[in-house]
Amino acid sequence: MTSSFSGQNRPGVPPRLPTPPTGWPIGSYATYEEAQRAVDFLADGDFPVQEVTIVGVDLMLVERVTGRLTWGRVLGTGAASGAWFGLFVGVLLSLFNTTASAGFGPILVGLTVGVAFGIIFAAVGYGSARGKRDFQSASQLVAGRYDVLCQPRSAERGRDLLAKLAMRPADTNHKD
Prior knowledge:
General stress protein 17M-like domain-containing protein, Alpha-Beta Plaits, membrane, transmembrane helix, GSP17M-like_dom, 176 residues
C-alpha cells in the first residue's frame, strides 16, 4: 500500500519524504558540473535518465565571507529593504484608495514608514549581536564528490556509455 506521502512504487515520481537513494554507482565525479555533464551525455544517448540519481557525498557547508559589516552598511541595507516593503504597501494602499485627491500620498507614506521601520529593525538586530558577527557571508552546501546512481536493470549500459564519455576530451561541448 502506498501512502499519499511517499512517491515510492511510482516510477518517475521522487519521494516526498527524505529517503536514501537507491541504485548502483555508474560514475563518480569531483564536481556537480561533471555529474550533470555525465547525465546529459546519458540523455543524449537515449538512456532512461529517469532511473538516474545524482548523489552528493561528504557534504560540507561552505560559508564565504563577502565583506565587513559596519553600522553604515547595516542601516543602509535596512533602509533599502524597508523602502521596498513600504513602496509595496503604499502602492497597494493607493490602488484601493477611492479618494481621487490622494495622489501619491499613500505611496510616499508607505515608503517613509517602510524606511523608518527598516532602519529600526536593522539597528536592533545588529546592535543585539554586540560585535559577535561583524561580517556578511554567503553559505553554500557542497559535496566532496558526486556519485551517479542508476537502477540495476540499466546500470551496465549506463557504465558503458559513461566509459565512452570518459574517453572524450573534457572541453567538448558538442552534442552527439
